[in-house]
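Service request form, structural biology core

Requester: graduate student, group of Dr. S.
Request type: structure prediction, single chain
Budget code: on file
Notes: please return the result as structure tokens.

Sequence provided:
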Amino acid sequence: MKEFNGLNRYRRTRFRAVLNGLCAIVLLFFFYNREDILRNPLLRQSSSTFDKPWTRKDGIHDQLNGMLVIHRRTGEISVNSSGLIEGPDANDLTKSDPGSCTGIVDHVGFASRCEYLKAHPHCSSGGFFDYIRFFYCTCGKFRFLGYVVLGIWLAALFYLLGNTAADYFCCSLEKLSNLLRLPPTVAGVALLPLGNGAPDVFASIAAFVARDTGEVGLNSVLGGAVFVTCIVAGAVSLCVSNERVQIDRRCFIRDICFFLFTLISLLVILLVGKVSVIGAIMFVSIYVVYAFAVAANEILRKHARRLKLDVITPLIPVKGSIFSQDGEEDDSMYSPLLDIESDSDQPQLHASLPQWMWASNVAIYSNQSIKGSIPDGEKHLWGWTDDSTENNQPLFSCSKLVSLMEMPLNVPRRLTIPIVEEERWSKAYAVGSASLAPILLAFLWSSQDDVSFQGTTIAYFVGITVGCTLGILAYGNTVSNQPPQRFLILWVLGGFMMSIIWFYIIAGELVALLVGFGVIFGINPSILGLTVLAWGNSMGDLMSNVALAMNGGDGVQIALSGCYAGPMFNTLIGLGISMLLGACSKRPGPYIVPQDSSLFYTLGFLMSGLIWALVVLPQNDMRPNKTFGIGLITLYLIFLSVRVSTAMELISIAGLS
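Core staff response, request fulfilled:
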């Protein structure tokens, strides 16, 4: 069995090497074919006028080529003036407007779709890379190559989003919780959901703010909620249907009722069609009330147990759960949140939540092993260990290959996100992150379309000055063998903030790629957000919750609770903060919510799944069975069939056609 497990780990390592290698090649390929690599106003002005510098023969040809390009674009745009953007952005040819790509299919008056794109520069996906231009101009007649490259890049962006959450963001949250000495009850409802729901939350924010495609953000969050509450909850129920496991009635009904109230509030916002700053704050505050209810429940449970009353079971694993090995228990991991059986009269709080919980839903993307020693034959939650623990030469060589292949994807994040974990500490990376993080922020600021040359110069000057100062301070106040002990909170906050910045970058690029796919396939990007983006961000929930449930015991309670509490958090915080930022940008007027009548159908199916759970489970004495699971999965298949059929114009339904 040991040899078999080693072979499986070796195969997984080879798969990771191939995947990361392909992703790195695609990334370098995008950079090579990009006209203005840094999307900088300085380079953008030149690249939008002249051809690539390596295509010019001599100085005279340079001038003539530049004049020809200017003349050609002026002539084409003047003839097709209807494709221009009116208003304050009329002269900004770099302004992204995917809605102006409606004529690309027929490209009337142009020899090819590429010629159409050259004449309409504002027809763009809006990301750092122009995926529409790449597909139609760079790939040309080799469409299959374009599909393969964009498909690999889509998988890479999902991986980067989940890996950033698992290996960077959750580490910062865990450290922050420990430094602030947050009780597990507070951390469990405040920081823990943010770690596990970070991909959904920041993808929604990027869709609303970075790409101005709010309908994609709305459909991705609600589509993910339907997927998790139907497919994931249904799969969990089918896996434990023969175990006759009973879940807690009060906690389940509490979560369902709060979720239904959340959806009703969102429905009101969609019906009104606009939201103010106050309205967005009130929507987000629903989660604050929910968190208070959970904390109050723990306090009541504490006093009830003191009085020897039989109340609800804690959601955190207790004694005898799936993680104990060989009859041994880890009290700090498996005890309730509030430990009342002590010598003192006052209940004692544990110092922190179990480490595995901070990245449970995104663990499939992690390259790190769970902290602590890993004895031989130990049963792991997700079925794998860190490959570097093997000492045989082939695996070691493959591990080195993986590290080499991952460099283009990992090194930029390591050089800009401070990490103060003992196992991953590196003084070189720490100094680099302190120096380069401000420069990355300056680059992002200057990448905006409305930043002037003077603003760009000031941003880079401030970024380089601050970066050099922080780099010198980091070099003089850190050692090579351990993370810093002084000003540790500043390092942790820096890692927390830069993880969010990378979420913003990756999620924005993911939304831009979906917009590009929408133009290429002629599909509304909101449909892709409802399916592709929702499925990709929910894979972690599916695998982690099913793994927890199949191990039995309290894992079933955690898995089913996560199927409802997680999507509720993503809806309230992801959409709530997105609408709040949008409302703040439109002050003093309200933020106009994207008009998409299909959202009402999505909300209807989502509420139907919650009502089904609220009716079926109590009737079966709170024991998940096949009827419950099959009903949820069938509901999702009906929902998906209706949305896809209407998108392909196979059927016509009011509001969806």
